[in-house]
Queue: 2 jobs
Job 1
Amino acid sequence: MHDFLKNQYQFSDYQIAQLQYLLKTFSSEFSKLLIMGFIFRNQMGVYFFAVTIMLLLRTATGGLHCKKYISCFLVSFTYMFLSLNVLPLISINKVFQLILLFFCMIGNYFIGPVTSVVHAPLSDKLVKRVKLQSFLIIFFYITLTFIIPETPFTVAGFWVIILHTLQLAVARIIKKGVPYERKICETY
């Protein structure tokens, strides 16, 4: 494949390495989602909804990153298991949910983004865009929570936002509070 891309399309070694990284990352993330989808197959709709909220926030603000596939899978599985099966057992009234979501919205805006060590430093323009993106995602969710009655979907989404905000804060602390710059140690 390397020689084909190099000879046929005149890709540089760097471009080929980028493509390999993209394929490895995509296959790793997709396989984790499929495995968890199988595990949560009896809750497929709620699982899909929770993953959608998580991915929207994660792509906007980043967070904790693991170096090994198995540790990443275990962290992701724990995150989903807590959001779908454990934390929904805690009954929180709608007003308190809205208050917590408001604090999460503000927290994500001021804490994020927290990028991996392998991620290039973000431009100021991109930082502003992803901060606004996470703010609007949670604002939209607050609106949904206010309008529609409580369902397993809204409860799972609420806990995904809470857990995302907590792991984002932990990631920022691990990075020693320095925003948007590449660090020598990766955030785990």
Note: The radius of gyration is 18 Å.
Job 2
Amino acid sequence: MSQSKAKSIFLAFLACGLLLSSIPQSNPGLESIKITGAGRSECDFEITNFDCNTEIVDLDLECFSDIFKISVVDNSSHNYKIQFRYETSITIQHEGPHIDLINWKHYRSPWKTAMLNPERQFVCQLPDGLISKKFPKVTMSEVRIALAKVEPTWVDHIKHVKAITEYPLDVGISRIYFRILAKRNNTWRLVKTFCYNISLGC
């Protein structure tokens, strides 16, 4: 694993922890949590290990979906709810190769509570096509400085760009967070946090 990828995974793990630190934790005896998306079985992900509170997975390009359905299998009668949010990052394209500034600034959407469908699946509806251009206000000078720290040779590639959504720059969803909570003694307690990392280019 490269140093940059290891740093990316660590920061994503840290972000999940910071986002959830105020929620009491609980493992009420779950059997499994299954996450489905893109209508393809090979894109399904099943969680059966609840020793670790956070799990991070890279999502394959063909498994992108703006709707994820989550099923909770439990041998008890706990009440559950699932919340989700997404995070955007800036990407720099270069006719195929790309650099995603995933360790810089982000927009993070508010947490939303998933709706329960008749099949007892929690439905997480994200922006259509996983497209969101929301991002904190930044200057192009700040973007160039951030890019120079990652790959200095690419700075000239964006020297005339005036906005973060002007090619070869763009903004897109780079992470999706899900958190599964169980109600015990009238308190919602965290069971598991799941994070999908999404590449912003091929």
Note: The first strand starts at residue 30 and ends at 37.
